[in-house]
Amino acid sequence: MKIHGTPWGGNPRRVAIFLAEKGMDIPFVDVDLMGGEHRGEAFRALNPWELVPVLELDDGTCISETIAICRYIEELHPEPALFGRDPLERALVEMWQRRIELVLYAAVREVVRHSVPAIRVLEPVQLPEWAEVNRGRAARAIERLDGQLAASEFVAGSRYSVADITALFALEGSARAGIEIPGSCKHVERWLAQVRARPSSTSTLPPARG
Ligand SMILES: N[C@@H](CCC(=O)N[C@@H](CS)C(=O)NCC(=O)O)C(=O)O
Questions:
Q1: pLDDT tens-place string over residues 97-130
Q2: Shared-domain flag, residues 15 and 36
Q3: Statement to judge: residues 108 and 145 lie in one domain
Q4: Whose CA is nearest to atom 16 of ligand 1?
Q5: Which of the chain's ends, N or C, has fewer CB atoms near its CB within 10 Å?
Q6: Number of domains in the chain
Q7: Prior bond to 80 cis, omega within 30?
């Protein structure tokens, strides 16, 4: 098995953190997004949707979509359970994973795509006004997350889960786009410090530039 996508870049980082939490090691193959490698014939044979990450199995089957990849890994290596251990936990993890991905991350993504100059190579038409609309949406979603984290150690309850990985990734994207965590969101700050300090996060950061 191998994973196409640079491990510290965006969605592939989610898979890298997930694997680190499982204590698993699957090699990553760099894909030069800024150079347009994912739009070339070789990559399109792996994923015609031109997105990383892609998990390529030994028989050549390709799985894309971060959560599909993580679910496959969870089925093969159930411990520690990162999608919940019983019907209730699984439902709550699913609920939070979807809220974070479809509301918080969706807004953050639009801010990044429409305001970060370096991303223009991927998003040739950048609409600053659209970035601003989404900056507000992202801030509201962070406030809602703060409400949850006021009562809960982790995003989906008392156990670390894939929802924490998605939320960490979303907030790393926010920082990149200059979206500040609202000053009132002390619980998000507490949680962020906690999940950032986990070996799964620190061991998957990009190498320091010399
Ligand atoms: N829904 C996909 C999103 C994957 C995605 O957006 N990947 C980005 C890198 S983080 C990408 O390949 N971007 C290439 C582009 O926008 O052209 C997933 O969850 O894996």
A1: 999 999 999 999 999 999 999 999 999 999 999 9
A2: yes
A3: yes
A4: 122
A5: C
A6: 2
A7: yes
